[in-house]
Write a structure and sequence with these properties.
Elements lengths: L4 E6 L1 H6 E11 L3 H8 L3 E2 L4 E5 L2 E5 L2 E2 L16 E4 L2 H11 L4 E11 L2 E11 L2 H25 L1
Antiparallel strand pairs: 1-8, 2-7, 2-9, 3-6, 4-5, 5-7, 8-9
Length: 153
């Protein structure tokens, strides 16, 4: 049986604003209208983050637009949603986030075998000069690739 993985929402800005140290896959508790809205591509992870409360991971500020045909079954677009992880992984994330500067950031939501999954990243915030260094390094690599391509031609 082939595993199907379809990315619904991607948080590209997280890779710019944070230094991603490790990622973990978690299940995501959603309602029926929320999953329909995500399948239509109407989700946003831009300012979202996750927290550990009472031994559970909760995702805050994740925006899922109300489903157009959802009528009263729709829920609040910014409600707090639960992520499903093993207790050992939750404890490991909790210990890491207690260190200064670490946070749990959602990087993408995808469907895997018809189940909604969220990729949570343990991240450390970049400072402004770190961002400039990353941009300069990326530009330098592009110039190298162009020069190599030009030499091959």
């Amino acid at each position: 049986m082939a595993e199907s993985k379809k990315i619904l929402v991607d948080n590209r800005k997280a890779w710019h604003d944070y230094e991603i140290l490790e990622t973990v896959e978690a299940g995501l508790v959603l309602t029926g209208t929320e999953i329909k809205s995500l399948r239509a591509g109407r989700g946003n992870l831009r300012d979202s983050y996750a927290r550990v409360d009472n031994g559970e991971i909760w995702v805050h500020n994740m925006h899922i637009s109300p489903f157009e045909q959802g009528n009263r079954a729709n829920v609040d677009p910014l409600r707090i949603r639960k992520a499903l992880l093993h207790s050992g992984e939750i404890h490991r994330m909790l210990v890491k986030t207690r260190e200064k500067g670490y946070a749990i950031i959602p990087t993408k939501i995808y469907l895997e075998n018809r189940r909604a999954k969220i990729e949570l990243a343990l991240a450390r915030g970049k400072r402004q000069f770190d961002k400039r260094d990353a941009i300069a390094e990326r530009e330098m690599n592009r110039e190298k690739e162009r020069a190599l391509k030009h030499d091959r031609d």
